[in-house]
Amino acid sequence: MKVKAISLVLDFNLYPRHHVDQQCVADYVAALKAGAVFPPIIADKASKRVVDGFKRTTAALRFGGDDAEIEVTFKSYPSEAELLLDAIRLNADHGERLGHYDIGRCIILGHSLKITDEKLAAALSLTLEKLGNYAHRIMEGPGGESVVGKRISIHLQGQEKPLTAKQTEGIKRAGGNNQLATINQVISLIESRLLDRSDERVLDRLARLAELLEPFARKAAA
Predict the structure, then answer these.
(1) This prediction's pTM
(2) What's residue 199's pLDDT?
(3) 114 plus 47 within the same structural domain
(4) What is the DSSP string of 50-91?
(5) How many CA atoms are closer than 13 Å to the CA of 158, on its beta-carbon side?
(6) In 3D, which of 147, 45, 38, 162 has the Cα closest to residue 101?
(7) What per-residue confidence (pLDDT) applies to 219?
(8) Is residue 166 part of a domain?
(9) What is the predicted pLDDT for the residue at 220?
(10) Measured over all CA atoms, what is the biggest interatomic distance in the chain, rounded to whole angstroms?
């Protein structure tokens, strides 16, 4: 059936991905302007929460505003765990591929709802061994928060003490590169003279970088 898109709930506490890809949403909006028709989204009948179709719903709202209508297939779920498993299964089966960080998020969400690794592996189309490899990247943050590690923080995996608040925030904001690749990118920008010297924000961040690097330079000189 068709319903007002604004009547649906985007519950990010049950979203398998760590963010909504805004470029994909923009592409969907462009497609809607060109007359494209997307397949129905899946939503929970009782709560009206979107189970599959976060980006399509967001695109519909961006394109049509509060009056936008969207095709929906409503389903009933016996529990929050079954709703999450279906969301994971649907996101893993089609559309944008779930990345390592997304899979780690699925494991954290699943464990919070007491979902077994066997069921999570099946929903993600992974072997238990592969699921265990992803689970190994999950670290403990401040206050017992579970944090999905990235390549940039791989050296911290297995440590006994929890991450600090700064480390946790840094991991969440970091890209997918490892530390050496990230440092080499900055060096390349400077050596190739590709930095925009007219951008005050760039100059401000460079000054901060120089300040942070000073202890490393003194240690290397010694």
Answers:
(1) 0.80
(2) 93
(3) yes
(4) EEE-HHHHHHHHHHHGGG-EEEEEEE--SSHHHHHHHHHHHH
(5) 3
(6) 147
(7) 79
(8) no
(9) 78
(10) 71
Query: Between the CA atoms of 187, 188, 190 and 191, what dihedral angle is there, to the nearest 10 degrees?
Result: 110
State how many domains the chain has.
2
Q: Which domain holds residue 187?
A: 180-221
Task: Output the CA–CA distances (angstroms, integers) from residue 151 to 32, 87, 90, in the order listed.
Answer: 36, 26, 26
Collect all residues with Cβ–Cβ distance below 8 Å to 125 and sequence separation of at least 6.
92, 93
Q: What are the DSSP calls for 9-36, one per residue?
A: B--GGG-SSSS--HHHHHHHHHHHHTT-
Tell me: do 18 and 90 sit in the same domain. Answer: yes
Task: Measure the CA–CA gap between 23 and 1, rounded to whole angstroms.
Answer: 27
Q: Name the pairing type of β-strands 41-44 and 69-75.
A: parallel
**What is the C-alpha to C-alpha distance for residues 153 and 148, in angstroms, rounded to an integer?**
10
Q: Which two tokens stand for residue 117?
A: 């690794």
108 SS3 class: helix
What's the rounded Cα separation, in Å, for the pair 44 and 39? 16
CA 9/CA 20 separation, integer angstroms: 14
Amino acid occupying residue 104? G
Are residues 127 and 149 in contact, defined by beta-carbon separation less than 8 angstroms? Answer: no
Residues 200 and 113 in one domain: no
* Residues with pLDDT less than 50, the chain: none
Contact 176, 185 (CB under 8 A): no
Please state, in angstroms and rounded to a whole number, the distance separating the CA atoms of residues 188 and 200.
20
pLDDT of res. 202: 92
Query: Strand 41-44 vs strand 50-52: parallel, antiparallel, or unpaired?
Result: antiparallel
